[in-house]
Design a protein that fits this description.
The structure holds two protein chains of two kinds. By secondary structure, chain A is of the alpha/beta class. Helix content of chain A is 38%, strand content 14%. Chain B is α/β, with parallel strands linked by helices. Chain B contains 13 helices and 19 strands. Classes of the chains: A alpha/beta, B alpha/beta.
Chain lengths: 326, 426
């Protein structure tokens, strides 16, 4: 796989974090274990460690984000980094500056790490190919390609509740075609030897040859939910109605919305996840979202530890052994 | 001026032969084959022993970016690239800026080629509709009188079927060739990669085969309706090859070409979002690539072209979906073509016909043949020379190639235009 080389250094350590594809089980487990050690930091009264002290992290969001961006910022703060957050939708690139010029101008300000979200698939790889040696790129979502930190916090959430992936059936429900989250999750679940990965969606929201990703495809929600341990609901964007991909939100909910009734088809101890932001009453019923099988809010909290883990591994430190308390 | 080329293996696409013989050239024409005419006295002799001698290549689809996009290329740079790569004639699509929809632009192109060009013939293809707008027919008769060899709407398919039908009727009525690149813009949408496992994995907006075949089916029906002689350019999919094969079998006046890169690359070559692999139509599957090769071998595909689209560096220095599509192809047309012989896709003479005789016959151009009184546009190739492709050695101003590092056999030693040596490899 070509994506192997660019993210890992010669010793197989993380240099950039661009996609789950191209990583290996060892690194994924190391991220989860490292995140464990940071979850305790998050629970302390003083929530800081000095791992990124003296380092500058730039958050470049070419697309809007609430959750991802704020959890990245919190993670950076808790690692004691200096932070520069740019809302690029309103800055220089709108005035015609090329993407590469924006990046290089920021590099000139001695940035050590870029957290980048961009609407083009492959943009994270593009940036990683063009930054100076020693500068790292973290993908916070590139087009419809990958959103690897989201997938890792989802894996963390699953492991928190279920431990062993090799006996799990996981269902991912919704707009697979446009979802970078789904792609990253599928790669991660496969690397962690998940017993069965199902994707459930109407045909218009499935990409060509979906099975080639290593999943089984269901076009019927009720069949797909049968006996699963984990249900991951994806957000349905309203634009999809305009693009003639779906007739209406109402019909989508009727066919693919997660209701209490349907949840009963899964295992009794199944957990319900959603990367957010959720559309209540479109892909998920309010009572399920707020119900006792939902771990959706937990996911957000775990997002901080997982992002701390990835960033600290990139600067060469796994967990707290060399960081210590601040 | 008289010149003789001795001892070469002469590739004759008309007779489909490769024969060791001598060629005698005088006043821009071939005057002797095998033996010199009486009183012929050579002023210059080229010994072509162990070399191939063939007609200069005719590239039936190459963009020179002139007028309009000097940052990408111009007539001067690209005719030089053509000549130094064995291409003696270039057919250029009408999507220049401004488009080739008026006689002034045609004259400008001819004028620039006379002033700055490097001896390659440049044949403009006129716009089928004004401004390529798809609404009003262009002045085809005037354009033709000024030297447009055919009419096309380039990459801008006609949205209105009635306009397309009338454009084909009008062009057909004056016995002009219509060139169509079949493309349905609704199905193309914002796609940038073949709809298949690779686009799925990389999350790249996908282009289904139907973006080509749905348009092609309609276009073939309009050929059946109008009888307009039509050439389909840059086919990319197996289903298209099949459709053209069947339409030809029915006797419709149809010919077709494909871009040479489609015979070597597939969507898997996109690798890690390599923007040099971004083309429209997209690089498709292995299955499509094999079907295109079959179409080339059995004659369904008549011509091979470079589909040359030179770019400035910045055009490709972007994330894949934002990059500009296209390949700088003049520098790799001949070596890739020769590779088809090496890979047993088709014999040498058949291959050369697709780059010489067939395009000149279809487009109604001089050249492309070896025979008495034919124009002496010839090239000489050393089939045994071995070299490695590097964009830094490209003559074209566009360095955007997906073939960096490829090993090639066979290199050009001479290009002759109208009996004169215009390029000699050092």
């Amino acid at each position: 796989m070509p994506s192997n080389s660019i993210q890992l250094d010669d010793n197989g350590k993380l240099r950039h974090f661009l996609s789950i594809e191209g990583l290996n089980q060892t690194i994924l487990n190391e991220i989860l274990d490292t995140a464990d050690s940071f979850t305790s930091v998050t629970d302390r009264t003083i929530k800081k460690v000095p791992i990124l002290r003296g380092k500058t992290v730039a958050n470049l969001f070419f697309e809007t984000s609430t959750r991802t961006r704020s959890t990245f910022e919190l993670a950076e703060q808790r690692l004691s980094a200096d932070i520069l957050s740019l809302n690029v939708t309103t800055s220089a690139t709108v005035k015609g500056e090329s993407l590469l010029d924006t990046l290089q101008n920021l590099e000139a300000m001695q940035i050590d790490m870029f957290v980048i979200r961009h609407q083009n698939s492959g943009s994270a790889h593009f940036f990683a190919q063009h930054v100076r040696p020693g500068v790292s790129v973290l993908n916070a979502g590139d087009g419809q390609h990958e959103h690897p930190t989201q997938a890792m916090l989802d894996m963390y959430t699953i492991r928190h509740h279920k431990q062993d992936f090799s006996s799990l059936r996981v269902a991912i429900v919704g707009d697979i075609l446009h979802s970078r989250v789904a792609r990253s999750q599928i790669h991660a679940l496969n690397l962690l030897n998940t017993a069965e990965i199902r994707v459930i969606a109407p045909r218009t929201l499935l990409p060509m040859d979906t099975e080639s990703l290593g999943v089984s495809v269901y076009e019927d929600l009720e069949q797909g939910l049968e006996g699963v341990d984990v249900i991951i609901m994806l957000r349905l964007q309203k634009e999809r109605m305009r693009g003639a991909l779906l007739p209406s939100e109402k019909e989508y909910f009727r066919k693919f919305g997660l209701s209490q009734e349907r949840l009963k088809l899964a295992k009794p101890d199944a957990i319900v996840m959603h990367p957010g932001p959720a559309n209540r009453g479109v892909e998920i019923e309010s009572s399920v979202m707020d119900g006792n099988q939902s771990v959706i809010l937990q996911q957000v909290g775990f997002g901080i530890s997982v992002r701390m883990a990835v960033m600290s591994m990139i600067v060469g430190q796994s967990g707290l052994q060399s960081g210590g308390d601040a | 001026m008289s010149l003789q080329i001795m001892n070469g293996q002469v590739v004759n696409p008309l007779e489909m032969t490769v024969v060791k013989t001598d060629l005698f050239l005088q006043d821009g024409k071939i005057v002797g084959l095998g033996s010199a005419p009486k009183s012929f006295k050579a002023e210059q002799t080229i010994d072509a022993a162990d070399h191939w001698v063939l007609p200069g290549l005719i590239d039936c689809q190459a963009r020179l970016r002139d007028p309009g996009e000097p940052e990408k290329a111009n007539i001067e740079s690209e005719t030089k690239a053509a000549i130094e790569n064995g291409i003696t004639s270039l057919c250029i699509p009408p999507d220049t800026q401004p488009p080739i929809d008026n006689s002034a632009t045609v004259e400008l192109i001819h004028h620039r080629n006379e002033m700055f060009g490097h001896q390659a013939q440049v044949y403009p293809i006129g716009a089928l509709t004004r401004g390529l707008g798809g609404e009003q027919l262009s002045n085809m008769a005037s354009l033709r009188a000024n030297g447009c060899i055919a009419f096309s709407n380039a990459k801008v398919p006609l949205a209105n079927n009635l306009v397309q039908r009338r454009a084909m009727d009008y062009a057909g009525g004056q016995h002009s060739l219509v060139i169509i690149q079949p493309l349905d813009h609704d199905l193309l949408a914002n796609g940038c990669a073949h709809e298949g496992a690779v686009a799925t994995r990389l999350g790249l907006p996908a282009i289904p085969e139907a973006a080509e075949t749905a348009a092609l089916a309609k276009d073939i029906e309009l050929v059946a309706q109008t009888g307009a002689r039509t050439h389909f350019g840059q086919l990319s999919s197996a289903r298209s090859v099949d459709m053209v094969r069947r339409a030809k079998a029915k006797g419709l006046p149809i010919t077709a070409d494909c871009a040479i890169h489609q015979l070597f690359l597939t969507d898997h070559d996109i690798g890690n979002f390599d923007s040099n692999m971004f083309t429209i139509p997209p690089l498709r599957s292995q299955y499509d690539r094999d079907a295109l090769r079959e179409g080339v071998a059995d004659g369904t595909i008549d011509c091979l072209c470079s589909d040359h689209q030179p770019h400035e560096v910045d055009a490709k220095l972007k994330p894949f979906p934002s990059a500009e599509p296209g390949i700088s192809g003049l520098d790799t047309l001949l070596p890739l073509a020769l590779r088809l012989v090496e890979e047993d896709v088709l014999p040498l003479a058949d291959l050369i016909a697709k780059l010489t005789l067939n395009p000149t016959t279809i487009m109604g151009l001089p050249g492309g043949r070896i025979g008495i009184d034919e124009v002496a546009d010839l090239i000489i190739v050393d089939p045994d020379s071995h070299w490695v492709c590097s964009a830094s050695n490209f003559v074209s101003k566009g360095k955007n190639t997906p073939f960096e590092g490829w090993d090639f056999h066979g290199s050009l030693t001479h290009t002759l235009v109208a009996g004169n040596v215009v390029y000699e490899a050092r």
